[in-house]
Structures are given as C-alpha cells and as structure tokens.
C-alpha cells in the first residue's frame, strides 16, 4: 500500500493549479444517464472516485471516452443496458448511489444498493428516497437494496427538505428534470456544486431556476439534447492548499480558485493572521513568519465554513497562539484526524461534536494514518509544518480526491515523496 513521506519545514512558494471539483464531477457524470445524446465534460479531475464512477456508468451501458491529457470526458448513454448498481460498487463510493434518480427518471425503475454508513458518520439516504416517493415512485428496501419504480414516469412535486442536504438536493434535481410537470424544492443546499450541476443540466435542455438559492423550481422536459459543460474549480482542493500555504509559511497562488466559494475559509484565515487576496488568476495566500492567532471554527452548510475543510484547518490551528474551539455540525464522527495530529505533538481534546485545540510550539513528524479523504490530507498539511519526516499511510484516501497532490506540492518546494508498496 502506498504511503506519502513529507519532510516538513520547507516553505511553499509558487502556483498551484486547481483541478475540477470532485463533488461536482461525480454528479454531472451521473447526469449523463438522463439523456440518449452526448454529454461532453471538460475539466474532469482524474481521481480514483471519478474513474470509479466512470466504470459504474460503463457497466450500466454508457459509452465513456475520457481523454486524460485534456481532461475531457465524452459520455453517451444511447441505451441503458442495466439498471442495477450492486453493493460492491456503492459500498466503495457513496456517490454512486446518485445513479438511482437518473435511472428512475429515464427508464422508470432501478435497483441500487443502500450505501450504508461510512467512517465520518451514518449518512442515511432517507431524504433522497422521500423525494422520489413524493414524485410518485414506489420504493422498497429489500436485502440491502433500494428497489425503485415509477413505471408511468415521475411526477413533479413540492418537496420541503427538513434540513439541508447536498446529496438529496442534487439527487432530487437529477430526477425532477425528466418528471412530468413542475417540481419545487425547498430548503435546498446552496453549495456551488448545486449551481454547477444545474448549469450542466440546463445546457442539456433542462428547465431549472433558483439553483444556488434555498428554493429551486424545475419544469420537467421529455428529452434532452447534446451538451458541453466545464466542471467548476474544486473549492475544497483550493481551500486545502490555502491552508497548506499558511501552515508552511508560504506564498501561493491558487490558480483558477474562486474566492466566493471559499469565503468562509478566507475569513478565518485572515482572522488568524494569514493574507488572502483575490487576484486575476485566482486567490493568493501568503503567510509571513510569526505564529498565527487561534480562531474558532463552526462547520455549516454553504456559505458557512465547510465540513470538508475542518480537518485541514484543525491541523493549522495546532500551531496557533492560544486555543481554538471547533464545532462539527454536519457529520457526527469527523474528528478521526485528532488522535493522529496528537501523535505529531498537537494538543486536542474532543468532546462529542466539539474539539478544543491548544496551540503548541512545534509538531514533530511521525507515521500517521487516517480513515477518510479530508482527514488524510489534514495530516499532509500538518506534516508540511512539522519538524522531520511524517509518513501518511493509506494514501488511497488521498487518491480519491486530490489530483497529483505530490506533484502540485513539490512544484512549490515541498519535500514530498510517494513510497510504493
Ligand atoms: C456531500 O455529501 C459531499 N459528498 C461531502 O463531501 C460533504 O462533506 C457534504 O456534502 C457536506 O458538504 C459528495 O458530494 C459526494 P449531505 P452528502 O447530504 O451529500 C444527513 C468529501 O470528503 N443526511 O449534505 O452525503 C447526513 O448524514 C465528502 O468529499 C440524512 O440524514 O452530504 C449529514 O449528517 C465527505 N439523510 C447531513 O445530512 C439524508 O437523506 C448532510 O449531509 C441525507 C443526508
């Protein structure tokens, strides 16, 4: 199993190009199932997760031609060959559950394994299923599989989500595009990936208004057209490298990053004493020497501070002056990085959904590992700031969501190596 070795203490200076957003790419890939026409996706990040989703789509009968050098993937679901997503595929990556809505909307039935829990929490899909029921689908759960049918097609509906869910908002949108009549979604997630999915669906001929606001209105259409869409820049990757630049006392241009998408992070970085400026090419993050101030973090749905940057920011705060209080409001078990950061010398006390980080003078490298993507990259961030060598095990987590991580960091002067085997 590959590991990543980081020799800390080198400043990060240079430009990091920001890739297409994983969490948008996965949903626009699923959108290809809705249409018998081609969908061309630009800026497709080459990640284990996007490759995996492409393989699932192939198994359902979608032709996927992906030119890796240009990042352009052309998908064509002329015919749907299968409507079954088996356990082994959905278990490995939850986002594959998102094929249920498009299959149901296009073919009228689908059988998709329930995704089950994962390291960061239980992550049920009840809101997704209630949305499909509201659109007229019959849903049965049998032997761990969701069997969904709407043999006379889905009908538009008014759906008020009891709380904000990114996945349920996106999944309901994907299904409503081909439903008969109007769907109104209320209390929707407002993450930039929602507006990106809507932009892709609109290019395909869908009628959607309000994506990115709490209320989305969709008028169903009977068929879609060929389309081309460019996946937006990954705000979590951009935010991670912004934090890495701060941790390593660097000066980094995040090329292609959209400052509006990382506004809450920029606010926290500035409060801690890091310079973050919007420039023509993206966002420039600079930290001059001296300890940062401790600041608090409260994760919230967009535009609040993203749960997907909580671990990385905690790594930064381990070396700040004073105490920072973290409150994780989205997932119930998202502090697995805390004991690993403690192995590097951090002082972190976790109490349920809260964590108190008391800044220490230095971190010292050690072997560490984590059980999810964002937790793993937080250990890379800590390793950049630690003295000596940090070895991050279970690199496959990083490969799920960070394109060319070592190459991007190395180009800015970091001493990072992948150790094979
Ligand atoms: C998406 O997950 C992202 N994943 C997550 O990123 C991200 O952390 C999360 O949104 C929040 O921003 C993808 O886009 C593939 P939710 P999602 O539905 O859609 C509960 C990463 O590292 N809930 O907004 O699954 C749920 O358990 C990943 O890239 C229900 O109870 O998140 C959670 O507590 C990790 N029932 C809360 O809602 C439901 O039916 C918000 O989850 C759905 C969700």
CATH topology of the largest domain: UDP-n-acetylglucosamine1-carboxyvinyl-transferase, Chain
Low-pLDDT stretches are: none
CATH homologous superfamily title of the largest domain? Enolpyruvate transferase domain
Number of E-state strands? 24
- Give me the number of helical elements: 14
The overall average pLDDT, rounded, is 96
Q: For the record, what CATH class of the largest domain applies?
A: Alpha Beta
How many strands, what sense, and barrel or not for the largest sheet?
Answer: 4 strands, mixed
SS strand fraction: 25-35%
- Alpha-carbon distance between the termini? 5 Å
Side by side, the strands of the main sheet go 22-23-1-24
- Give the overall shape: elongated
Q: Residue share in helices?
A: 25-40%
The CATH architecture classification of the largest domain is Alpha-beta prism
Structurally, how many domains make up the residues? Answer: 2
Distinct compounds present: ligand EPZ
Structural class: alpha/beta
What is the radius of gyration?
Answer: 21 Å
Tell me what you see in this structure.
By secondary structure, the chain is α/β, with parallel strands linked by helices. It has two domains: 3-18 and 234-419, UDP-n-acetylglucosamine1-carboxyvinyl-transferase, Chain; 22-221, Alpha-beta prism (UDP-n-acetylglucosamine1-carboxyvinyl-transferase, Chain). The chain has helices at 22-31, 48-59, 87-92, 100-107, 126-134, 166-176, 192-203, 235-247, 263-272, 310-317, 337-343, 373-385, 396-401, 405-410, and strands spanning 3-7, 13-17, 38-42, 63-67, 72-76, 84-85, 109-113, 138-142, 145-149, 158-160, 182-186, 207-209, 216-219, 227-230, 251-255, 275-279, 282-286, 297-298, 323-327, 347-351, 354-358, 367-369, 389-393, 415-419. The strands form six sheets. Strands 22-23-1-24 form a four-stranded mixed beta sheet. It is elongated and about 65 Å long. The mean pLDDT is 96. The site of ligand EPZ has 23 residues, from helix 1, helix 5, helix 6 and helix 12.
